[in-house]
């Protein structure tokens, strides 16, 4: 176990990218100090450790800051070898990274549009999101988790969708209908959220829906800065 | 597990694509024999659509009939498979690796859209904004180079590394835009380290064979600007 002062995580309670890092730390049994940031009034430490995009999460290990949640996940996996989250085989690693960036770039883009926009643009975004969900659904065929029998890097990367997609739907009044259309994905969402490390490390749902409702009303002026 | 014959490793790509250049540079650095399958500009082959149904974009590496997509993922794959051939592209230290990965993501997120934004911008104002962003990104990369290279010629140290490939593949297009727009992106006064770096990078034999001639890129850019005002370069 690493002394808590050596590992610090700057985060924000509602942020999926931050939870993603916490899930990885907890899976590996790494002790860390968590620092909650008020993103409307960022601490000097955060700005010092992440001057480039001033976002959370930032992992600080032995005074070295690591930024970008997927980069942090790989760093964690390479630094603490127990309970590996990435596969060993290069082809499997490439596939894991592929799905992680697909979800982070493409699915997040369409989810954001479905969340913030109205009318035709909203409908188009939901349509696009469903095409993406179909791809994820097909990828899960015959597998409990994206990473196999146990959760791994890909599940942690896609994980935000298991909780925050539902939150976004409720806060912004839309439905992606995965429970009807995408049975594998729907089943994965439930299994993922039932995993002890995940279940015990989620923000309170009502409070999160409220937060995102308020966030939507503000429009994109006050962006929740997170990656 | 080294590739032993041409048929084992194929790369779907196009001569002008900087994303494809990343894969080609990595393959060349690792001395991998491969078959280059050129996609025709404006069309997508059946093999491409079958190998990359999600994005339908190049580059796609096909190794023993298994496709690998996305240029940065391909570079890491090449580094991990042909591990005993040539120097490692990824640094040995986990923190250094995190820095390489962070800046590679930054390049794709902030620098490249700004760079091609200058070509695709519909108004002079939008063009100026893209130019500002591109120059600002390069300034940050200049500082990053200072810290990461530790006085050596490349981000990877003595030899070309992952981040060198990630950024270096765009040097051809950077030179093309400099010529088309009449200003310097890499400037001896503002980004002296990156200027030296770009020269070292392009002087490398395997890189020189991949980066297209500036004149040809300028010609292509003019065609693209005229015909496909909003077409992004192949990913």
From TrEMBL, chain A:
Domain GST N-terminal, chain residue ranges per copy: 5-84
GO molecular function: glutathione transferase activity
UniProt keyword list: Transferase
Ranges where the GST C-terminal domain occurs: 89-215
The UniProt record lists the keyword Repressor: no
GO cellular component term, pick one: cytoplasm
EC number: 2.5.1.18
GO biological process entries: glutathione metabolic process
Catalytic class of the enzyme: transferase
InterPro entries: Glutathione-S-Trfase_C-like, Glutathione-S-Trfase_C_sf, Glutathione_S-Trfase, Glutathione_S-Trfase_N, GST_C, GST_C_Tau, Omega/Tau-like, Thioredoxin-like_sf
Record's catalysed reaction(s): RX + glutathione = an S-substituted glutathione + a halide anion + H(+)
Family: Belongs to the GST superfamily.
PANTHER family for the chain: GLUTATHIONE S-TRANSFERASE U8, GLUTATHIONE S-TRANSFERASE, GST, SUPERFAMILY, GST DOMAIN CONTAINING
Protein name: glutathione transferase
UniProtKB/TrEMBL annotation, chain B:
Protein's organism: Rhynchospora pubera
Transmembrane segments: none
CDD domains per the UniProt record, alphabetical: GST_C_Tau, GST_N_Tau
Enzyme class per UniProt: transferase
GST C-terminal domain mapped to chain residues: 93-233
Domain GST N-terminal: 7-86
Keywords annotated in UniProt: Transferase
One Gene Ontology term, aspect cellular component: cytoplasm
Catalysed reactions, as listed in the record: RX + glutathione = an S-substituted glutathione + a halide anion + H(+)
Family: Belongs to the GST superfamily. Tau family.
One Pfam family here: GST_C
This enzyme's EC code(s): 2.5.1.18
Highest taxon in the source lineage: Eukaryota
GO molecular function: glutathione transferase activity
Keyword field contains Ligase: no
Official protein name in the record: glutathione transferase
Gene Ontology BP term (one): glutathione metabolic process
